[in-house]
Amino acid sequence: MTRVDRPRSRRSCLAVPGSSPRFLEKAQGLPVDQVFLDLEDACAPLAKESARHAIVKALNEGDWTGKTRVVRVNDWTTPWTYRDVITVVEGAGASLDCLMLPKVRDAHQVRALDLLLTQVERSAGLPVGRIGIEAQIEDAQGLVNVDEIATASPRMETIVFGPADFMASINMKSLVVGEQPPGYPADAYHYVLMRILMAARAAGLQAIDGPYLQIRHVDGFREVARRSAALGFDGKWVLHPGQIDAANEVYSPTQEDYDRAELILDAYAYVTSERGGARGAAMLGDEMIDEASRKMALVIAGKGRAAGLIRTKTYAPPAGGGSFAE
Question: How far is residue 212's CA from residue 226's CA, in Å, rounded to a whole number?
């Protein structure tokens, strides 16, 4: 089975209605990391068939340079899923990175998509296994089974939180998707987000936060995004161009943190080398760094590089060698 290098940058994941040629064209010029062309909630039942063909045309003829290209198919309880997969993958599989499966409740649903994808790839002469899977958790059962879902297929790339359906499934007292329910003094989504994050990280996947529906309230979007970013989420859905810059900023390290991470990596590489004394720890300014520091720095440096940050500070070994750096 052919696999791609993972993970991809997914700070901003733009939802694009597959039934709208105007939005399909406009999305190509927006500075997002990922676009997902939607055949599910954004398409009325009577528009789904034509939307499949519009998506195939857009993937094959559009310019999606620098973007991860995803199509969200309908969930397995509907009559549309298998035809979504066949039409899109046969028609534009070479121009597709992932399929997103909504309302995932157990691992069997992921395995079913994997099997269908494999058959279509073989039939179409595509590399088997190259197209990844994103699984969307949208109800209580899906959350309970999230560990098995995360490891259900080698195609798995992300676990995505779907807040609207999830709120309904647990009878949460709120009609504002992404905002805290009235009467609860803490963060009502903390457990859900952490549960998804643990399952994703244990399986080596990315974790993506869901949408914030008040599209004109950018400050509100930023505040909600900061919560999941602080936990370690890799990105968030955006529903409007006005949310893109905020998402890209929130899920990227600051220039200062990125520079510091690169310095830690350089300093640790030096002090553990023969020239640097083959030691396991060093001082970088006022901070002692060791192997644990290196692991944390790798995360920040990786995110900074993926975001296109350029380092502004250079590491210089201390005069005379040794294990201490400035």
Answer: 12
